[in-house]
Amino acid sequence: MRDLARHEAEGAIIGIDVGASTIAGGLVTPRGAVLASVQRPTNAGGPGTALEGLLSLVAQLQGEARARGIALQGVGMGLPGLVDVDKGMMVAEKHLVPGLTRVPIADRMRQQTGLPVWVDNDVNALALGEARYGEGRDARSLVVLAIGTGLGGALVIDGALVRGRSGYAGEFGHMTVLLNGPACFAGVHGCLCRFLGGEMIAREARIRTGQRRDSKMLALAGGDSAAVTTQMVFLAAEAGDEVAARLVDDACEALGACLGNTLNGLNPDMVVVTGGVVNSLLPLQDDILRRTAKYALAEIFADTTIRLLPSDKSSTMRGAAALFLYESMRRTLSPSLGPTEER
Ligand SMILES: [Zn+2]
Fold this sequence. Notes:
- With 343 residues, the chain is an alpha/beta fold.
- Helix content is 41%, strand content 20%.
- It is built from 12 helices and 12 strands.
- The strands form 3 sheets. A 5-stranded mixed beta sheet has the order 3-2-1-4-7.
- Strand 5 and strand 6 form a beta hairpin.
- Helix 2 runs parallel beside helix 3 and helix 7 crosses helix 8.
- The longest helix has 25 residues.
- The protein is globular and about 60 Å long.
- Bound molecules: zinc ion (ZN).
- The site of zinc ion has 7 residues, from loops.
C-alpha cells in the first residue's frame, strides 16, 4: 500500500491505446507504473461509435484520478493508422477504424479534459514505451515491429522517434517481400502485410478452407469456416494441416525477409517483435531467426538482438504515456514546434 501511495503522489498521465477491436486506457505514472486501467470494445455502441467510446473512457479515467487525488499531466494516445501529429488526427482513408478518419481527436479530447493531449501512430507510441520503460532501455537504436490485426513498425534512434518527412516512417509492414505480388488493403503490392497480419492470415484461411471437409482449421472452428481465427491457423499447422502449414510457412518466410531487410538497412542494436500474433509465433522463434539469417548480412545478424515479446495492454498504455512525455519535452525544447498546452 505504501508503494501505491508513493506512485500516486508522482501524478499520472492518461495513456490510451486505440485498437481495431479494443480501446485500452490507464493512469500511468511518469516512471511507468499503471495505477488503474479500463478497456472497452472500440465500437461498443455500434459501428461509428469509436470517438464517443474513447471520450467516455477518458472521462472515466479522469474521474478515477480525481477520486484518488492523483494529479494528471495530460493525455497520450496511440491510434491504429497514419497520424498527423500536429493536427492530432488519423489521416489515411484506409485503416482499421474507419470511423476515426480525419476526426480531430486531440482537439476534442483537449476540450473535454482541459489537459494537454498528444496523439501518434500506436506503434510509434509503443516503441517510445519500449525505449523508455521496456526491453529497449539500453538500446541506442531500436526497431519495433508490431504484428496484430494489422502490421506496424517504428524506429527510435538515440532517444528520438524517427518520423520521416511526413510522419509516417517505420511502415515496415508494407515492405516488399514478393515482387509483383498481390496488393494489400492500402494498395501496396507484395508487401509483408499481405502475408503476416492477423486479419490477413485469418481471411486467407477462411477462403482456403471453404471447400475442404478434412480441414483441421475447420474442425477447430466447429465446422464454420467464417469462425477460423489466426490462432487456429497456427494450431492446425502444428497438427499437420497442409493448408494451414503453407500459410504459416509463408508468414514466417515473409517475416524473416522483412527482418533481414530491416537489419541490412538500419544495423540496429535491437529489434522487438510484438503484438497479438506473437503468442503464436513464439514456438517458431528459432525457425524465424534461421529464415532471417538467410536475408541478413552475417556480420549484422550476429550483432543484433531480436526479441519476440508477447504483447499486453499495459505495455501499449505505457507507450501512450511515453508518447505524451516525449512530445511535451520535444515541444519544450523546440518552442517553434507549437505550444505544449492548449493551442
Ligand atoms: Zn501492405
